[in-house]
Design brief:
Jelly Rolls, mainly beta, 53% strand, six-stranded antiparallel beta sheet, 191 residues, 2 domains
Amino acid sequence: MTLQRFDRATLPATRWKNGGGVTREIVCNPPGAGLDGFDWRVSIAEVAGDGPFSAFQRVDRVITLLEGAGMRLHATDGRFDHRLDQPLVPFAFAGEAPVQCELLAGACQDFNVMTRRGRCRAEVRLLARSTALPAAAGGLLLALRGQWRAGAQALAPGEGLWWSGGEGPGAPSCEDSHAALLAVHIHPVKP
């Protein structure tokens, strides 16, 4: 099993092609696959301006507001019109949808999970207390508030870990009454 720690504060930033923000990739699996060949990818984006989202064919996306007032996401083909203005509430949509973003009140940060349709699917949950989670072949934990433990790993706010090729680090636990942790489980899709 591959198990990798990360710190949100030290993730390198890459500017978007349209200049509307930057992305900080946490994991792209398989490693080195790039945007056209990944099975699953997790990143944090800083959205600085209105504009279109990049389209990803045959990809399912889950976006979660981390910081800021949020944004209105609307598909120009009428599939959906969604205000992403509640922090830590995941919203799922098809990656090929033609999405326009309108910031509600300035820049914001969001957490993005993308999975290649037909290969795997993602389950994104917000945890507020110690929780037993099902085993998953891959996934990611990101501590947002409180001091968390996952197996032998201690996670302070902004720290996380991702894994692939195994069942994960164990059930996350925290004793803080204001705890918050994003848990992503990646499940393979059987043909």
